[in-house]
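Researcher: I'd like a structural prediction for the single chain below. Treat it as a standalone chain; there are no partners to consider.
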Amino acid sequence: MKTLQVAHLTSVHAPFDARIFHKECRGLVERGFAVTLVCAGAESGERDGVRIVGVAKPRGRLARMLLAPGRVLRAARRLDPDIYHFHDPELIPAGLWLRLLGKRVVYDIHEDNVSSLSQKYYLSPRIAHTLGRLFGGLYDACERGASRGFRCVLAERYYAERFPRGTLVLNYPRLESLPAVLQPPSAPGRIRLLYTGGHWRDRGGAIHARLVNLLPEAEVHLVGWCKPAWAAELRALAGENAGRLHIEGAGVHLPYERILAQYSAGGWTAGLALFPPTEHYRRKELTKFFEYMGAGIPVLCSDFPAWKALIEGVGCGLCVDAADDAAVVQAIRWLDEHPGQARAMGERGRAAVEGRFNWERELDRLVDVYRELNRA
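Model: Treating it as a single chain, here is the predicted structure.
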């Protein structure tokens, strides 16, 4: 059987993005596909069997949006693979051009791109809200209309409401990347709290940072990219307790391996996701939930209905009102004072990832999409 050639295209994401590179590209190589990643800002070469073709990434967000898609498209056209798989809304015109040329094209929808218009971290909240209100409906119509020309894969369940013809390829963790042996929680009286991933105000950054003021024995670790100015703001918020607030990733996109190393370190009281209520996040099944679960870490998150259904349904953590300091502190102290129950939560989370919420099952769906496209 002919080896299928697949090109993944991104003008926005980092070269070694967890979903694009570690899950999809590496996973496809392991399944026998020939995979090339065309990425703006990457260095050309090869890693883990994936060929990487880098193109220049313009400085500045507007220049990137205008120039990078064309550069990615030109590099991708020279490859002429069996299937093109792109990951960014700004590459939709490039995807449509490829379809006009008769190519097989997959659009990987990572985000709720309509609600995210109101939550751009690089804009003031007022401007971002106005942007979403004025252009959200127009963007929705354009993206949904254009998507009819592609085979869509969806990283979240509720995206199917906008893209009913899409195929769910959910952003669950690779089992082999997480600790095989569950780590015990931290010793009672030594509270260690972990948050992984990019963080800013809408992702609960201020709530997480304030925990060092509410719990004098707590160490809070925020591991993931943030703007340096935001890290400085969080340290100022922690005040004299800033020595117990550990921020790793200010101004730096950490390699995914660094996140995985934190999970493997063990001894965590809880994995945090104490977000304020926003339209963009309240329905998401955050990737970090499944990574915490897979690493055997109890989850402490906001009590949004979708989050409660998942976390309490599995029995792998606690859900609280993130705006209620007393409730948050009570939940953390309960986990600290009940290590046996906390460990049982971690065990249930790990078992759920092994049985249901793992990338290996999702990769099967992606492979099926490619094979159907190739037969067509």
